[in-house]
Amino acid sequence: MSNKNAGGMVETAVHGAVSPMARRGLMLVLSSPSGAGKTTISRALLEDDTNLTMSVSVTTRAPRPGEKDGIDYHFIDRDRFDAMASDGELLEHAQVFDNGYGTPRAEVEQALAAGRDVLFDIDWQGTQQLKAEMRQDLVSVFILPPSTEELERRLRTRAQDSDETVRARMAKASDELSHWAEYDYIILNQVLESSVEQARTILFAERLKRDRQSGLHAFVEALRSG
What we know:
4-stranded mixed beta sheet, Rossmann fold, 8 helices, 11 strands, globular, about 40% helix, alpha/beta, single chain
């Protein structure tokens, strides 16, 4: 189900035909406890959908080896970050281990106005901030693991974290899971391929919502007038 489009045009499900109606973009949020699969699902969505782009956050932390400014993050200093936060230039922001992270408002609003969709890999707190700012543009999805045992197994299988870190992530997962009911959609990630397809289906359906098709009224009026 490819959804390639440009200039805000809506691609329909019928033979890949492109609708003449302009569409406002949407903000697709995927949240989950660490290890439940949101990053893997996000990558799969981005790989085959050219109208979906990942939100690039600003951060005050230093770049890690291999990270590129403007691609992985916008790396800025603390003074600039604080100014952006106080001036309302960030849709959401948070402090993580003494470093600031946030979503630049201007980039997102420009993408939405152009009919492009923006993907967010953020937690429930960031999602709440986005909801307060731009609820009409937000589509939120929470990814559930099939069990706590499977979640811990996946964390250990990654072999990226120490036992102490895994225990800390598992402890945090309980709090994160308590916010599942605040989301629009829930995906139980038992089989990755099925979960990716469910996420694609959510995105496709949300693109067809009447309120997002800004050219719909004019198009229907033209149909009526012959």
